Amino acid sequence: xxxxxxxxxxxxxxxxxxxxxxxxxxxxxxxxxxxxxxxxxxxxxxxxxxxxxxxxxxxxxxxxxxxxxxxxxxxxxxxxxxxxxxxxxxxxxxxxxxxxxxxxxxxxxxxxxxxxxxxxxxxxxxxxxxxxxxxxxxxxxxxxxxxxxxxxxxxxxxxxxxxxxxxxxxxxxxxxxxxxxxxxxxxxxxxxxxxxxxxxxxxxxxxxxxxxxxxxxxxxxxxxxxxxxxxxxxxxxxxxxxxxxxxxxxxxxxxxxxxxxxxxxxxxxxxxxxxxxxxxxxxxxxxxxxxxxxxxxxxxxxxxxxxxxxxxxxxxxxxxxxxxxxxxxxxxxxxxxxxxxxxxxxxxxxxxxxxxxxxxxxxxxxxxxxxxxxxxxxxxxxxxxxxxxxxxxxxxxxxxxxxxxxxxxxxxxxxxxxxxxxxxxxxxxxxxxxxxxxxxxxxxxxxxxxxxxxxxxxxxxxxxxxxxxxxxxxxxxxxxxxxxxxxxxxxxxxxxxxxxxxxxxxxxxxxxxxxxxxxxxxxxxxxxxxxxxxxxxxxxxxxxxxxxxxxxxxxxxxxxxxxxxxxxxxxxxxxxxxxxxxxxx
Length: 585
What we know:
- The protein is an all-alpha fold.
- It has helices at about 1-5, 10-30, 35-40, 50-60, 60-75, 80-105, 110-115, 120-150, 155-205, 210-215, 230-240, 250-265, 270, 280-300, 300-315, 325-335, 355-365, 380-390, 395-430, 435-460, 470-490, 495-520, 540-560, 565-575, and strands at about 340, 375.
- The protein folds into two domains: about 1-310 and about 390-585, Sodium/glucose cotransporter, CATH 1.20.1730; about 310-380, no CATH class.
- α2 packs across α9 (about 155-205).
- The longest helix has about 50 residues, at about 155-205.
- It is globular.
């Protein structure tokens, strides 16, 4: 107990986590759903700006808050694909998908595909895709919750996952989309405040400029007259790494990864469903614009956070003894997310790039180096950044609360997709068409509860693919949903046979490519020389999308056209003067 009272970071973390969790639960009670329409789409009456905030929180998962800046920290220029791809996806959503899907007036993506392609087979394939994508994603979110709890609240990862499950269970099962929407508004406020405050502090600390987007390209305020990026490039060169502003990926791979992230974003079911919650077609476009602006606040700050964190980390740990390390090092070492092995017995942390053979032979080995001694998990860069920079304890605790908000907000959205896919697309549309509204709502809540327990299990016992969630989930969404939705909206000749054949071809190709290179062959085989057209597994979803489109178009022209009423429906979706009619859906 005495140790607890003396640990200011822990006390601040407990206070902020209890406060924010209390807000989330209170909002869920206030906004609890009373009908299937409120459970699925929040009654369809959410204000565009409110929906934009909820969409931003729904999208900015633990991957965006915790992992993205860490990835950019280590990849440098190559990490820009995540910034371009994930934000570019919202441009596609706002312009090409959101208003038309809202006008169609359905609750879910499988519902749209099933009705547009007048086929339960198409609906079932879409349902399976939605479940695979959502469970893959949500397992990573629950794991992120466990990591934050284990570091900042000193509990086991398993206990942290269970606590996260309990909170999500309460507001997802009770409130449905209505409760989740307004809870996500609160979570957006928490996560964006938690992300920006340390950025303001560290930017001013290192450059004298409060604005991080400006600070990471400014001169250091230590009297050296060096620019921050110039300092980082120099530090990396000393350790044998490539310059931060240089990339090693080919232009082809950069293009395919960025495109896969863009179309994958536009095809993710938990993002698309948010545009069914606004009153009018016009509001869907407006909320998409607001979401893009609100997301950009974090995404334009991430490059600055990555530069601040990598610079401070290298300056803190390189060629230092463990005895000289500050307190944060020992606390993170306990989580095993940062590890040191003294291979040459000199007591110093030798952190070199062991993949640079020339550097190893000419610099590292002459200095007694016997292999890289420091392993740093990319996910600690944002969470540990305030501690490395020696910021106040309340800022450190705030980042923990922000990390939890980002993970829980996305987990809730994904769990709702799983819930509605089961209750609406499987039970209501296929197995029990005559089920009552009350019975369907009961199925929805039951499915959400079961999904939470499954997600919690995967969070505690993560499958091997969780670490590759970006390549898997985005590639699958890009190769399956996106072509079916785009062709369904803009090409009225597209029929059931074409859509089903295209989705199956795109899914099987993308799934097989990722599984082969990520989980079957040895890491040394997973290199550009062995990739198809030098396209990495992270970018193969773009090729899968193109295969889907080609197969869909070929098959649809070899088979009968869709019924006239379906063609008329597609025409009405795109006809601007009918937009006002959607307000009643």
